[in-house]
TrEMBL record:
SUPFAM superfamilies: Winged helix' DNA-binding domain. The lineage of its organism: Bacteria, Bacillati, Actinomycetota, Actinomycetes, Kitasatosporales. GO terms for molecular function: DNA binding; DNA-binding transcription factor activity. GO terms for biological process: negative regulation of DNA-templated transcription. Residues 11-80 form the HTH gntR-type domain. The keyword Transcription applies. Signal peptide: none annotated. It comes from Streptomyces sp. SID12501. This is GntR family transcriptional regulator. Keywords: DNA-binding, Transcription, Transcription regulation.
Length: 292
């Protein structure tokens, strides 16, 4: 299976390989406890990158807890797309839904309204790729209209994280963050506007707002009635800089594997309803203050 590079925008090869492998673990192609079916050399050929890039990507996935090295047998998958605890669940049971399933349920509505607050929008870009593929393939009915409001930290902000441990590396880590965000937003725009251009969706509006805040959590507000929320977990780790082919140590957010919770407006659950409405009010207040 070769990755579709049409939406990758010439970004970091390392980040692209990480995203592709995480996507395959999330969609079940690489099941829990299975071994990655491709060798380093095969992965390099599959992704059209060097073996060194593949090794760095595998190390990142290992550091983030997705895989572990099995001596003599390769890499074993330690986790896949987690079920998200939900206020819909009764009697302490899990909802049984993952983030892609919750997003697909939101996109089953004829009019889709998403409000998202994120550090880079990298995970959202992955979700929009899944949604786009499902609509194009007929697995998901296309909505009539999609509106996305995306709130991100300002490029000029002196962010709390990611932040280089060595002050001399401060600017290169900031630039890596800017490029990752730019590439992720570009992927989202390409995927959703392509649905409109090819006649699947009648209307697509994508609005972005930059705020002078380092987000402490990621937030997806779905059609005004659901919220998916989770804190960013921080970790000091090596990050790879594609431009200089080097690594620097930085305090970074592990957003792609962080915990999340799901809340639904429900007359029978006033606490969950209040959470969704309060988060929507918080989002709207920042949007009204900083959107231009």
């Amino acid at each position: 299976m070769s990755v579709d590079r049409s939406d990758l925008g010439g970004g970091s090869k390392h980040d692209r390989v990480v995203s592709v492998l995480v996507g395959r673990m999330r969609n079940g192609e690489y099941p829990l406890n299975s071994l990655l079916p491709l060798s380093e050399e095969q992965l390099a050929q599959d992704q059209d990158v060097s073996r060194d890039t593949v090794r760095r990507a595998l190390k990142t996935l290992k550091d983030d807890g997705w895989i572990e090295s099995r001596q003599g047998s390769g890499w074993r998958v330690l986790k896949v797309e987690p079920e998200i605890p939900s206020s819909e669940a009764k009697g302490g049971q899990k909802s049984g839904l993952t983030l892609p399933q919750l997003m697909k349920r939101a996109f089953a509505k004829p009019v889709v309204v998403l409000d998202v607050s994120s550090l880079t929008s990298e995970s959202l870009a992955d979700q929009m790729s899944i949604i786009s593929d499902d609509i194009r393939g007929g697995a998901l009915s296309a909505p009539e209209r999609i509106t996305l409001r995306l709130m991100l930290p300002s490029d000029e902000l002196d962010m709390a994280y990611p932040r280089a441990v060595d002050p001399q590396d401060y600017e290169v880590v900031r630039e890596r963050q800017r490029l990752l965000t730019k590439r992720s937003v570009g992927r989202i725009r390409e995927k959703l506007h392509s649905l409109k251009a090819h006649g699947y969706v009648g209307s697509v509006d994508i609005l972005t707002c930059r705020v002078p805040l380092t987000p402490t959590s990621k937030l997806y507000l779905l059609n005004g009635t659901e919220a998916v929320h989770g804190p960013y977990l921080l970790k000091t780790r090596s990050v790879y800089l594609e431009e200089t082919e080097s690594e620097v140590v930085a305090l970074d957010a592990v957003g792609i594997a962080g915990p999340m919770e799901h809340f639904v407006v429900d007359d029978g659950n006033p606490q969950a309803s209040a959470f969704v409405r309060n988060q929507q009010g918080w989002f709207n207040s920042l949007w009204e203050q900083y959107a231009t």
